[in-house]
Structures are given as C-alpha cells and as structure tokens.
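Sample entry (1305 residues):
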Amino acid sequence: MAVKCLEVDVQSMDGVVLAQKFIPIPAVTCLLDSLQPNCQYTLTVYSHTRMRDKVEQKGMGGTKYMPASMSVVGCTLGLTPTSRLEVVSKNPNTVSLTWWPATPHGPAFIDKYIVQWQETASTLQKCQALSETSSCLLQSISTLDVCRDFEWSSQIVSREDCNCTIGRLIAGVTYSCRVVTVLESTMVSSESSLQASSTEAVPNTFWHVGDSINVHSSVAVGKPRLLVTAYTTTSIQLYWPKPKMCIPVRVNDQGRFVEEMEGLVYNPRCKGVVSVLKSYRVKVDGSLLATLDSEQSKYIVTGRELGSTCCLALEALSYGEGMRKKRAAKSRAGGVSSSDDFDISSSDDVILSLPQSESCPIVSLSCHFTSLSLSYDTEKILCDESKECACGVIAIEWQIPGENVCSSAIRKFIVRWSSDKNPTQRSVSLSANTHCYDLQSPLQKDVYSVSIEAVSSEDTESYISPVVQCQVPGPPDPPQLWLHSANEDSLTIAWSEPQTYSSVKIKGYQTYINGKKTGNLLETVHRKAAIPYRKHKKYEIAMVAVSDSIEFGNSLPSCPLLIDGATLSAAHNPVPTVKKVQFANQPESIDDTSVVAAKPFDRESSGMQQKKERLKATKKSIARKLPLQVDIGEVTGDSISLDWTKFIPSDDVICYEIQWSSVASPSSKKVVIRAEEHSHTLTGCQKQTSHFIRVLALGDGDFVLARSKQLTVQTAAPPGPPDLRVGNVSGCNVVVEWQRPELFGPTHLIGYKLRVECSTNVEEIELSAATTAYTMKCRPCELHTFSVKGMTLECGDGLYSPSVSLTCDGIVPSPLTSLPTGMVGTVRVRWDPPKIHGNIKIKSYKIFWLIESDANPYDMSVSDIIENAAVVCHGPLKSSVSGDQLTNIPSGCCWVVAGVYSSQAEVAYSVPLKAYPARPPKSPVITVTVVNLDERKKLEVMARQLVSQRDSLQLKLHWQKSKQSRRAVKKREAEVSKLAHTLAATEKELMSCLRSLQQHTGYVSMCVSWERPWDDGDATVSGYQLIVDGSPWGRKLLSSSNDVKVKLGIGKSTYQVQMTTLCKHPVGNSIPGNAVSISTVDFQPFSVYCFCNVHEEGSVWPDQGSCSYLDSLTYELTRLPTDGSAVYPHLGFLAPHPIQSPCNVFDLSDSKWRNLIGTSVDMPMPTQVLFWTRWCRPSLTAVELFVKLADELHGECHFVACCIDSAGGHSQLALCQLIQQTLTERKLDRPPDVLRHAVAESNSGMAEATLNVLGVVGVPTWICIHPAGYVGWQGRIVFDLYEDLRAYIDDVLDMVLGRKEYKAD
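Predicted structure, serialized as tokens:
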C-alpha cells in the first residue's frame, strides 16, 4: 500500500506532494512525520500490485486487481497564541490584566489559561528568550519545568474569561507577567516529536507560553480622606490631611520583597516603599473641578445651586521610584506626562445636600479649631505621651435666614457630635437665640463630625443639617525608619514623611543615637542620612519629626533600629534588628558596663579582683551571719530614700551595692555606695509603680558580707478617680455618693473636691476625707453634672471621676414679657407655658403686682414682692390663661411676679419683671449744621483784602498826581495811567465779590438732623414737630424722617431751635428736646466802612441806609465829586502841618469839652483817636479792637474813642446815656488813664467843626496825632483780627514818629 500526503493550498486547493510512504501488507496504520503544525493536508492511499508497472506502461485503467485510490482530508494540531496582554488597572497590592484569547486548530480545544508572574530577575531573560523563539510552537512539559525553576506564582483562569486580577503583590515592585495556554487533544498520538505530558500531566495536554510584559505595581499614597468643614447655600469648604506616603514591606534574607506589613514597628525585616505626591484632583459629580498642588489642603467649591446635592471626591496622584526614571526619560525626550504615568488613590465619595434659603432654618454651618494661647516646654512635649487633649476649642457657628425664617419659629437647637476615637454620639441643647457653640478639650489628631438639629416651636418637625467635620491639630506621627544600605565606614538610614494634622507642619528631622541628639536638624526634603559607625559597637538609632508648633510639639521617636557594628563589618547590607526603646522618663536596663554610681569608687584598687576566686566559696555563709536592716525614708513620685544606719558593718565591708528593679522595668539596676555612707536616694523611678530593692554589703572580691531582705516599695502618685454615683433623689434634693479612691505609695488622703456644673455656673466644694456623700439642692429642669476627685498632701490632687449627670424634676416658669395696652396707667403682661420635667401637671397661676416709685434704683426679689403688704394678687388663674393686666397705676412702675402652682411640686416663681405704664417717647437730640457758612467767610476775607488793596492804590495814585517834577512828566503820566487801570480792575473785582456776598446775605440756611428717639413700644413715635423760639415751625414731619432743611431770616440776631416727638397715644407728646442757638450775625450785610450821610440809624436790610459796604462803595464811586474836592475816607500818612482850629469833643469821663490836639507839652505821647457810631456794626467791631489795643499800649499812646451822633435826634444827655449803656453792655469802659470816651454830637457846632477840620466823613475812622500837634496818619481799618491790627498800628507809629522810613504804599 502507498500513502501520499499533499498540502492543500488554501487559494487554489491544488495539492503539492509533501511526503509519500509505502506500507507493507498486512499493516493498516501509517505515521507521517516532519509535518508543519496547524496545516491542512490531503491523505491518499493507493494499492500496489505486481502488474502495476505493466498497467502503467499500457495506460490501462483500474481493474479489480487495481482498485481506485481513497482520499481523506486531515489537519495537524496547532494554536494561535494569546495576544495583546495589557494592564487594565493596578493598585498597590493587585494588578488587573486582559488579553485576546488563543485559537486552537486541529483535534484540540483550550482547557484553561494559567497567569504567571514573578519579580524581574536576570534569569527571567532566558525564559523570555525561550518564549520568543517558540512563540508559534506548542511547548511540552519541559518548558513548564524551566518556568517552575524561576519560582513563578500562578493563577488559573477559565477558558471563557480573558481577564484576571492577581493579588498579594508588593507595592513598588516590578513584576514580569505572562499567560500560559493549556491545550488538550481529542486523539492519542504515538511517540513523536509531539510528546505527551509526563506522569505529572494529564495525557493529551500541551502548554503554550505567551509573551511576557513588565508591570510596575502601584505605589499610590494612602487613601486620602476628604472632610467638609463648612458650607453655605452656594459654596462648600473642603479640607484633607496629607495621606500616608510610605508602604512598609517585609524582606527575606536575600533582601527581596516578601509581603506588605501593617507598619514598621517591631518587624525585624522591614523596609519602606516611598511614593512622591504629585498633585490633587477635586471632582464634583464625577467631573473634574480643579487640579491642585501637592502642598494644598483646602479648597472652596463655589457656584452651586440652592438645594443641589453634590457628590465630592478627591484623587491623589503619585509616583514611585520606578516611575521617577520613566518620567525623567519622557521629559528628556520632550514628552508630557499623562495621568497614566501616575498612581491614583481616590477618597470615599462625600455626598452633601446644600440648604434652601427659603425653607431651611440653617443656611450655613462651619466648624474650625481655635487654639488657646499657652506656653509649653518643647522638650517636655517631645517625650510626654499623656497629652491627649488639644489646648483649644472647636468653634461651631451656624446662621439662620434673617428674613424668611422667624426666630420665634425655632424653639431650640441641638448640637450633635462624635469623633473617630469616640464614635458615641453626644449632644447639647441650646436656645433659639444661640448661633455658636464651643466644644471643649478636643482630642489631638481626632476628627470630629458635627451636625445641628433645629427643633420647631410646635415640636412637629425638625431639620437636621448636613454633617461638617473638623480635624484637630496634633503633633506629627513618628517617622517610619529603616536601614537602607551600609558599607565599611558608614550606614545609610531612610525614613518616610510622617502624617501631619491640620495646621501643624514639619520643620525638620532630628536623629537620636543611643538616646542622645546627634547632628543638626535635617531639612524637610531629606529622606536619607549617612551615619558613620565604628566596628564592635552597638547603636540605637531613632528619628523625631520636629514640628513648627510649640503648642503641640514634636512627634514621638520612631521605632529605633538596633545596629551591631560587627554585623555591618561582616555584611554590608544586614537586616536590622528592631527594639522598643523608651525615650521618656522610664530608665533603660543597665548592664555591668554602665553601672550608675552615686560617688566614684574603684573596685580594682582594693584588690577585689585578685581575691575573687578565693572568697567566692564563703560568700553565702558570711552573708547569713550579718543581716542588714534597711529603713524606707521619704518616697515621692520619682525617688525612694533608703537608710541603713542601724546596720553595724565589720571592717571587711568596703562598699555597698543597691540592686533595684521595677514592674515596668524588670531589668536589674545597680548603684555602688562608699562604705562611709549609710543612706542613698534612688532617682529616676516611675510613678505609681512597685519597685524591688535590696542592699548588699560587699567585701574584697565582691564578696557579699551582708544582705537585706527584698523590699517592695510603691512610688507615690496622685490618687485614682473615685467611683461616683447618684444616690437618693427627692424632689430637688440630690445625694451623690462615692467610694474611697485608690492610693499609691505613702500618700494620705486629706479631702475631696466635688465639682458641680450647671448651665449658669461651676461650683467646686471641698469636703473632708471622711465624707463619702453630699446632699445638695439642685435647680429644677436644669442639667447638673457631678464629678469628684481626691486630694493628697504628698502628690496633690488626683483625677476627677467620670462625670454623672442628672436633671431634677420640677417647673421652670417662662419669663414675663410686657405688652402694649393703648391706655394710660395700665400694664399688661403675658407668659409662655413653663418648662416641665417629670410627671407634673400645672394647676393654676397667681400674678403678684407691686406698685413702686420709679426713684427706687434697687432690684426687688420674689420674696420682697410677694411679702410686701401693698402687693396686689390676681388669681388663682386657670392653667390655660397666658396673660394679665393691672389698671389705674398712678405713676412710677410696678413689679410683676407669676407663681405656678401644681400638686406634685413646690410653687415656682418667675423672674421679677419691672414694667412701666405707657410713657411718652423721649425727645430727639438734634444737631444743627449751618449751610454756606464757610463760603461766606472766605468771601468776606477776599472782600477785606480787596478793600485794603483799593485804599493802597488810591494812595499811590494820589501821591503820583501830587508830584511837582517837570523832568519826568511822561513817566509820571504813564505811572498814573497804570495805577488808574489797576484801580479800576480792583474796583470791578471788589464789586463782583460784594455781589457774591449778597447771595449769602439776609437769611440763614441750616440742616437739622436727629436720630429716632426711644419709645416703650406702647406709646410709639408718630412724627416730629420743629420748634423755633418756642413756637411750632413748619408742617409736621413723618416718623421715618431724620432731617429737615430750615431757612430763617436775619431779623433777629439769634434763634433757638428745638424738636418735639409726636405721639398718638393718650399719654401725649414728648417735651421739647435740646435747644440749639443759631446766630444770624455772620449772614448780615458785609460792611467795613459807612459814610455818615448814607448810614441811617434804625435802617435794616434790605432797606436803603442799612449798614452795607455795597451802599458805601456805590456812593463813593458815583456821588463823590470828581474835581478833587472830595474827602476820601482813607488818607494814609499826612505831611506835617499845624491845625489852627480847635478840635473839641465832649469827654464822658469828666463831662467837659476837650481839644483833641494839644501842644507837645500837653501831649508827650502820640494820640490814637477812633471815630465810631453805636448803631454801626463795623464801628462796634473796631471799637472792641481799639479797647484791646489800649489795654496793651496805654503807656505808649493816648487813646480816645469818640462816638459820632450823625442822626442828631438825641439830646446831649440822652446821647451820653445811650453811649454809656452800650459801653457797659459790651464791657468797653476803661479808666481815663487807659482810654477816654468822648462824644461828637452833630447838633453841636464845636463837634461839627471838629469833624470838618479832621476830615471825618464816615465810621470807623482812625487818626494818629503826632506829639507835635498835627495829624500824622488818617484812614480806615478793615481788619477783623487783633493780630493783624496790632502789626499794622506798630508800622503806623514807627512811620509817624520817624522810626521807619515813610513809603507811599
């Protein structure tokens, strides 16, 4: 028989002969080898006879001797391997993989997949190479044996699944992962190159190893925790502490990672896998809201809608050491890091529903920690582990909508809180007016969750706010420390960044070697440190995180490493030994090389070492013969005094040795004492601990000559908390009982301190040591909290017992409130239902009224009211009544007390209320502001300057015109023209200024303002009425008004302005309020000089002839003759010329006529003469300044004030009386040697001649007469300030007397 194998071409299906084999008869099987796997073949079987060759040569067809061939199509066994092995997700301990499935060919099917992984190693390259060279061929069991040599971990996956999650990985480790396909065949083959599985495998099972990929397990930071610290209707404030940055793992003897650990503490083989925090991502409702820097820990979510529900989450992006190199390579290549390059750690979702301002009684809530100002010892904080409470409070604040929710709709608030360390929910009830609360003594490093419940007045419904949280600050956690590497000279330690809390930050790291601070403070960015070491020495290394907060202090020391220098010399990378070391006040175990000696003593100098062997045999026998008695002296919390004075030592005793230990430190400690001493004090003991002490008397060779009995001494400590409970309760009488506390050491109880807390005060009561119960009367319906502690003489006060709370049964009446009545002499009050605790029912009310005088300044108690003989009692009233009133109250006030009566409790009285009948509202306090006063004063100053400038220009022009020089005629005419032009411009400007002054003349504009006055709520303010000079002015003003503008004329010199409050209540209006005086002088017509024939007595503005400078200037410019014959009011300095005619005036001092100008004998000093008129305002101002000048210069000049009566309507006697009255009213009268007052009556011929001779045409006119008897200066004074006048007069006197050169200007 012949078998032909033809490979079928898939495209043309044409056969290509691949192999041919002849089979002798009678064989019925044939094996074709060297075929390709996963290929389709056509197998044809031919029969051969001896006639075959002849048949073929003759071309004959098949006969019965030559049957036709038989064909069959077959396929060899094969597999299309798995592909696209990828990482779907990864965590620090797990990695999720997925791949495309494999496809079997031929008589086979896929049984399962095996996922294998291991840490990357150099031997893995061989396996990868083997897999690459035979990726398309099936591998026998021998390949699996090679894989098993590499210690692959495996996990079986069903053939239907093409994904797998492998666990128990170590964070930060690179793993090689691959998928092995297990194939089973449906037919059995003979021995061939397709070898079946060995005895360990199932027959017809084949393996295919797929490609491997490297996976770096996640080094994500610890799971972040997202806290909501505050919220409003549209914003949320978030806070999160920094997550843990290190994952501790355990290593084997070869230094390879084995498994993850819970922590580095007390693990002998441990290292840390450190991750680097890159940034944070805040998500809201699954969408990215913000990407924040790694140093940030707060964020405010804004722009939220009212009543919306938010799902908040926080993601921390980090990377490990492996990703650091990958990111650096990508950065060098110009690439940008994506989120796939980072490990992501997500917080739990926080769901928060924001309030609606229209319906929610609480629209905002916040809580934050507020620190108290205290001073701390930094070194004490470093080692003190007992500080659990933070020095501060948690401030809780909330707000209610001011417009939409009435405060009366809320009866109370209930603050509920719990914490991570104490999950038991606690609460406190607050009044409806309270919007803040402080949680006292929060625990350090704890997270508090707070919510507020608003209870309505009807108790039908309540609103519970969303929960906010607060992180309490505290010292940092201890760093996690491990040995990184070591060489012959130094070792390198590494540590992780510890956890911090709230605002406490790390300032640096401090290394401790053998319990001592070593080296400088390391910066916060450091994570490794090299430490030199010596061989054959042991080191205890610890690390402390130094914080920037003095209040909370540094972290506790890390778990120290015990390093042996000899081990480091033998192996440079040993596994460190971890030992628990106490860095606080607990003493460490002391070996023979570190004996603590009270005084130095050298044993070897006494020869003990030489005789040690000889005397060891007799040591015990000698010790039995010499007993050593030790007495216990003073015992404190950290010291024990020993005394063995009663022991009489022999001459062989050369020293004493004290051996002692404690329950907390069982290792024995030794202290060596000289033989001359018989007492010693052990220090460094622990409080509240039993110590075991023995004293030995030693001789030569450490022979024990005598020994004391083992003494058990307990050190002193404050007493423990007593066991407190509430005993008998009878009404408001409460009995609290307690048991005697536990005492430690030789302490004596001297008494107790009982602390009683209630809502109003805290009371501390000191009791004797024999007292174990206390009876007190508590307030009804009020929560009382009791706690007690013991007091000792030696150690002070002990701890307070756990508090016991109790609310006594009883009735608390609600406070009385006064109501409006609308009647005179009536008081009405109301009250709310009282607060009741216990099974008590109200029976009735009684209202006690007591009328008192309002002059009584003292408050009255309940007993003062109800025991008064004049008290009026209304009742008993039914329990449903909630109000009462008292009428016909004559005056003053009344005191009201409500008594609540019940059958089960004592009578409860309300707090006395001092009520008043309806009273008129108070008068408003007004403030008056005069309008345009400053502008008016500025215009007056400008006008005076222009008048003075005009007078100066007139003098200059007159002086130029009077020159007689003919040589400079043209120059003089030019100067005269220039001066005339300047004078005209000045006069024009002066007229404009006077017209501006006219706008602020003749009336006073003012603004009257006030604030709403007090009213009692019954007789309320209904309006206001302005009062001017005692009479109502204008219309009534509304109650909402607070200012009014008023315009008054200048007909009166002053006005009195007041305001009264109007009220529609029968009690009437208020009395007029404060009076403000307003002067109109500042708004009179401006005037500095008046002509005698223009100004008329009795004329008032705006009539012609009133005191107005505008009229005087107009007269001067228009009516004075222009031919030069006119006499100008301001002549200035005059040339010396004698006056022949007498200038007589009537002297008021002696009622005689006198000549103003005399000889030099009569006038040794210059004479200052002022002509004025009693009804002219500038005259009155000038005479006041003239009198003041006379008071200062009466020794240098004569002063005469001459009053002119230009009207001529009075007799001389009447005129003198009027002038004397004016002088007296204005206090202008002076002695004759200072100032002489005279009169120049117009009806008198002598006075009129005097005025004509001197050229006085108006007032005020000032004349300075030289001692030689001539007028040296004559003019008008426009100054209104004395300082300016005095300076001007001094210059005038100097020029008149020739002490200064005369100048025309």
